[in-house]
Amino acid sequence: MLPATTMSRYQVVKIIAALLCALALALRNPALLGSVIVALLILIGLGVKIPQLRFFGPYVCRGANSRRCVALTFDDGPDPRSTPLLLELLRGAGQPAAFFCVGRRVAAHPELAARIVREGHLLENHSYTHSDTTNLFTVARLRAELEQTQAAIQQAAGVAPRWFRPPMGLSNPRVFRAARALGLTVVGWTVRGLDTKLTDPERIVGRIVQRLEPGAIILLHDGNIPAERLLATVKTLLNTVHALGYEVVRLDRLLT
Hints:
This protein has 256 residues and is of the alpha/beta class. The chain has ten helices and eight strands. Helix 3 runs parallel beside helix 9, helix 5 crosses helix 6 and helix 6 packs across helix 7.
């Protein structure tokens, strides 16, 4: 994690924008002023939606690329309709993964959360409610969400998450302040399969493979995904990445 004193790209852009706005006002140039404001809004919008820009803070979106290793991550579980079957598949294949879980689902299915950890996978923080408006939350509310999830995971599985993935990957400066206050690192992804929108496992895997690279963090979902589709996707993905000479490692190993 970057030191708290390190300026984010957002802070740097704000300073530059403020200077340009001051110049535009001094020159009485409304066109320049308007252009600066529009450019700032566009950059903020892109920063919110694209984790890889690391616009608001130290968003971790890939691991070391010195070896042909990748990590599997799954969001939005645990889901009793699909997560148990996914765990069986991963156990049979001898493959580790990281599960970014929703706190209230952990509280509702503590035995499934405990199984994730017991079978050698990581269990990490994905907020408590996974609200569509999470990116509008105050720092205090974000921190409460993260604390609730930390407590639910610790109670269910006896582990303390180290990483937080914001719902839908959306971020802003408050996300990083809340995470930093709890000692959590914000983690995104290198490539995602869009498996909440695409329904064909071959297309999902094809999209991932097109963007695959050493050190990649792969994002899929086990929550709210039909089990049959999830299993077909993961089986195809594992066969494909192995055929391409990649090793699947646990996220903590990839990031260290």
